[in-house]
Design brief:
The chain has 314 residues and is an alpha/beta fold. Helix content is 45%, strand content 23%. The chain has 12 helices and 12 strands. Helix 1 packs across helix 2, helix 1 crosses helix 3 and helix 1 packs across helix 4. The termini are far apart.
């Protein structure tokens, strides 16, 4: 039964029998027959079929919900009772908001050093999608905002505070400045993240507090795109300080802290608050604490900003 539930999960993700079979490393007829056997055992159709996969039936959606719980609980159980030296194995499904990606590599590298037998699947996702996928057992853990749009039903491990900076082409009239207001920034041609990203909603809220409404010239769901668009185009952008530790702006660009209002939000690890917790997720939070990654990330960010004459209090 459990094996067939894994096949159903793969089919729901891929929405294609051939791709689902490939992900499960089996032949397509094997997967199709297993799904039919599951339907016979449960006495209900689970999949709408034509010449190809159409959708799950209402009964299939109900079974899918139980499949996510059962497979997640089974993986947690096997981790808890596995004999031997206690070395962690299996997989860690981790998603991070785009603004956290510059720092996530430090977290994953530290985790991989301590748990080399765990296969890590790292994706970029919005904060809303991370919350949803934790609830539906599609993820083991996420790296997202902890305090702007508070999450429910999760355990949290803070990593760093995200502060916001204007990244723009160097201007003679800005030389010597130590900050810039959100209201003044609103007059610039901006490239910002798309509105489904919480970072964009933070920016919109900050502009609103400054009495401004902004329509960006360009929207993207990639934090790297923000950097390259500023470097090679006429636009400015709002970026977290952590990005500058990965991509130094260079002499043609400048960085100014955004003020009036001064905005800071905490980013950290989250995983579903349930018993027992996913072993890989709990181990990830443990690595962050033992290796003092919060201090390391803060130091890296300070060093990057200091190179551009910007101070950042810890």
């Amino acid at each position: 039964m459990l094996r067939k539930l894994y096949y159903l999960l793969a089919l729901s993700r891929e929405r294609h029998f051939g791709r689902a079979a490939e992900k499960c490393r089996i032949a397509q007829p094997t997967l199709s027959n297993a799904i039919r056997q599951l339907e016979e055992e449960l006495g209900a159709p689970l999949v709408e079929r034509g010449q190809r996969f159409i959708d799950l039936t209402p009964e299939g959606e109900k079974v899918l919900e139980f499949a996510r719980r059962m497979t997640s609980d089974f993986e947690a159980l096997t981790s808890a009772i596995r004999p031997g030296d206690g070395a962690l194995s299996g997989r860690l499904r981790l998603a991070a908001i785009p603004t956290a990606l510059p720092m996530v590599a430090h977290l994953v590298a530290a985790f991989a050093r301590r748990h080399p037998n765990v296969h890590v699947i790292l994706t970029s996702s919005s904060s809303q999608a991370i919350e949803r996928d934790l609830q539906t057992f599609e993820l083991d853990a996420g790296v997202t905002y902890l305090d702007n749009e508070p999450l429910s039903g999760v355990t949290m491990q803070p990593l760093y505070s995200e502060r916001y900076f204007l990244l723009a082409r160097r201007r003679p009239e800005w030389e010597g400045r130590t900050e810039i207001g959100w209201a003044e920034t609103a007059a610039l041609p901006l490239c910002l993240l798309t509105s489904d990203m919480q970072n964009r909603r933070i920016a919109d809220s900050s502009f609103k507090m400054a009495g401004k409404t902004v329509t960006p010239a360009i929207e993207t769901n990639s934090i790297i795109n923000l950097f390259t668009l500023v470097r090679y185009g006429p636009w400015s952008s709002i970026v977290p300080g952590q990005l500058l530790a990965l991509l130094p702006p260079g002499e043609d660009l400048m960085v100014l802290p955004l003020a009036r209002p001064a905005v800071t939000y905490v980013v950290g690890i989250v995983y579903a608050d349930r018993s027992p917790p996913t072993a890989a997720a709990k181990a990830l939070a443990g690595v962050a604490a033992r290796d003092k990654l919060a201090d390391r990330i803060a130091a890296l960010t300070q060093e990057a900003l200091a190179r551009h004459g910007v101070g950042l209090e810890r």
